[in-house]
Queue: 3 jobs
Job 1
Amino acid sequence: MGLEGKETPSFMRDFLDKCGGCAVIDGGFATELERHGADLNDELWSAKCLISSPHLVRRVHLDYLDAGANIILTASYQATIQGFEAKGFSREEGETMLRRSVEIAREAREIYYDRCTKDSSDFMRDERYRKRPILIAASVGSYGAYLADGSEYVGDYGDAVTVQTLKDFHRERVKILVEAGADLIAFETIPNKLEARAYAELLEEEGIETPAWFSFSCKDESNVVSGDSIFECASIADSCRQVVAVGVNCTAPRFIHGLISFIKKATSKPVLVYPNSGETYIAESNQWVKSSGAAEHDFVSYIGKWRDAGASLFGGCCRTTPNTIRGIAEATYGKLKDKCI
Ligand code: MET
Ligand SMILES: [Zn+2]
């Protein structure tokens, strides 16, 4: 169990208090870029838009802020210096693009707050909504995301990839994102305990004080995609001082309830969940296919149950849209303004 006072001084608890008990994370970022016409069939995926269409990146951030998000994730999920270099960019250009991902999100927040002061709709007239706190979380996708072959949903990097390989791979990008002024580092779609350990050691070695969250991609209600147990993975997150929240993302909604229970056994840090639509990603065809069983895209109705199970940050991942996030914001904020859910 995490000891009180061990983590980066109550950053997330203070934030959650300001949000009224629970916070709204944004939804599928790449999904929304595609809805606006971006072609993301590329090794850089959503990060490609940092080069080709930064205005769309800003636009998507604004879509999610308009939907009620308290936390927006930058377009850096698949942005790595190594990935940009493979595309023919210089190291400096790669670093600039990483910094831009944070700057664009910060610009969007400025624009949004500015717009709020001028908007007089009913929703915006509610001061608690209008002045709600908004954090910029620098997205750090896993090494598997950089490989751009769906590895973040498998988590088997082979014996040649060690903790040291992963630390060296992520080191510079994490430092750049922090220096660019992110409020939080969102380590997302972590597929195995090896990478969780690498992140924890990296934060310590580099003396990074920016708070971080660890979010795992899971294949059922007790294991991350590699087969490592979520309990073990959450325990690694629990023992990392900089980690202020632990959870799961890009995971089918049907597994979320069980996963929350296992995470709660490993840590007392706040728990975050931002599931995907419940479809499965097929790397070979670069497509999402429906899983058997009921459609799960409308998981908004489960938020109350997940809250009761102990989660306090809610959002969406791949194939979710601002509509999902609006639903979550209404569930957590609109209906019961004085108390979360
Ligand atoms: C494959 S998970 C992707 C997470 C990332 N924040 C995005 O929505 O684009
Ligand atoms: Zn996703």
Job 2
Amino acid sequence: MTRGQVQEPQRQDPRRLKVRGLACGYGETVLASDLDFEVAPGTGLLLRGPNGAGKSTLLLTLAGLLHPLAGSVSVEGHDPDDGPALHYCGHRNAVRARLGVLDTLRFWTDINGATGMEPAAALKRVGLGHIAGLDAGYLSAGQQRRLVLARLLTTNRPLWLLDEPSAALDAEGQGLLATLLTEHLGNGGMAVIATHDDLAIAGLSTLALGARP
Ligand SMILES: Nc1ncnc2c1ncn2[C@@H]1O[C@H](COP(=O)(O)OP(=O)(O)OP(=O)(O)O)[C@@H](O)[C@H]1O
């Protein structure tokens, strides 16, 4: 730096998923407790653990679809004027059988906000461009999963909560998922992903949930 130049302070992205003292479960059944973690821009968290450990339950709690049994979840630094902070993609693909593939994506995009890719371009990106007019009910399991990935692309939201996103995806589809996640994190996004598969992506740490007795 030459004399007289003022160095701009590094603009820190203030957004964070912040979890404090969180317990989640159903009624008297506590599946996980005393959870304290943060997910910062450009990073993600993998939820690991055996069947029934509570990964989906934790994701639902992070998404605000289940009340915490204790503690708090917040997405700090997110401007509500920018719309909802997160995408939640659960086990089910939320596909209506008699609605076309492109129309399904347009339907979601109309609801969620057209802040990302054009639906037709997003379909091509996930490898479904050639069947845009097909009724979504005729998609294979892996193709339905790809359609869900396209939903992430048509509406920009900083935090992706993904439950088994690679389920039913072939090797190429798993590579696509890794690429989309890498790009999302590279753009300052955040992610929490429950999976039994390997996801070779930089910037991920792991939270292991225990087995139930
Ligand atoms: N609504 C509910 N009421 C009571 N118990 C529930 C409810 N939903 C799920 N459970 C139980 O909570 C436990 C954790 O389920 P969860 O789906 O979170 O596990 P998971 O770690 O995601 O498992 P998997 O790897 O099989 O997807 C299971 O024993 C399940 O039966």
Job 3
Amino acid sequence: MATATSIVRSPAALLSAKVTVSDHKPTPTVQFSRFPSKRSCFTALLSSLHDNNNDDDNNNNVISHPKPLSSSQLFNSVSNGSRLRVAYQGVRGAYSEAAAEKAYPNCEAVPCDQFDSAFQAVEKWLVDRAVLPIENSLGGSIHRNYDLLLRHSLHIVGEVKLAVQHCLLANHGVQLEDLSRVLSHPQALAQCENTLTKIGLSREAVDDTALAAKHVALHKLKDTGAVASSSAAKIYGLNILAQDIQDDCDNVTRFLILAREPIIPGIQNPFKTSIVFSLEEGPGVLFKALAVFALRQINLTKIESRPLRNQPLRAADDNNGSKYFDYLFYVDFEASMAEERAQNALRHLKEFATFLRVLGSYPVDTTMM
Ligand SMILES: O=C(O)C(=O)C[C@]1(C(=O)O)C=C[C@@H](O)C=C1
């Protein structure tokens, strides 16, 4: 099987990029998005288009598209038997790669340098799914992905919870007292805030934890460590100076599984539904919005508000010169869209919401309860 794998950057660029195709099992090339790399690793994902064994497409050079999703979304292969391609943000050894592999154990995990590239990779049919972090038990929400969910038109088809155990990594021969600085993803740095303060290390943010490890290894840094996973230590040949350095031993990140098509919601297993809506300004409007769920005994598991970007400020009607920010509300609730009470709740909400979109109705990941 001819395959090439690289970090996905802009899929638009990918379509015009030179493609390197190898006959081997894909070994993702890595690239520092924040640190200039001498070697361009911009081989492309277009190989996937050659992987489909579709004679018509191969002969006519036409892009072959995988079939749209059905309710069999949890299967590990696409309909032609090839492995499911799952985009994640980061380089090899990132927690997001582990999340993609937890969601789809036999998948081909495809690294992307930005969250936006992962969304686009699904939209452009370069991959079948994306697995992206949305919240962490210590660090809170990953706001960027909330904003991207709205900007793109993908559907949430599942969630995956991953226990995140951070290590302090350094080059071999480097001791803890040699370190003055540590690199990592901002969420990872936040999750280890107390430990890093105790050790007295200055912090620098990079795009993902594994990228931090790769940078420390590649540049043979002696005064800089990385907060990353033990698998990143193995991949980049670093020494583990300290294990489990997160501020709480129960450190869990929840990831969303995104696809081009929604799944047909069921009622056999516990399901969750994610929505986003906006409301008119006024006293008690949010209370009224949340009451549509309370009235039907529907439990909410998450609420997040984000500024409505294209109209961030609005004058109040009362002419007293005050201005309001407009907000979008993201809500997760414990019910399937196949349930009448969920349909009724949303019908009720629609009566006064100025905007409402269902982002997905999907099975709850019960593995970490
Ligand atoms: O940097 C990584 O390794 C990631 O996969 C990203 C990420 C995140 O965005 O929250 C994922 C899990 C951990 O919470 C820390 C970082």
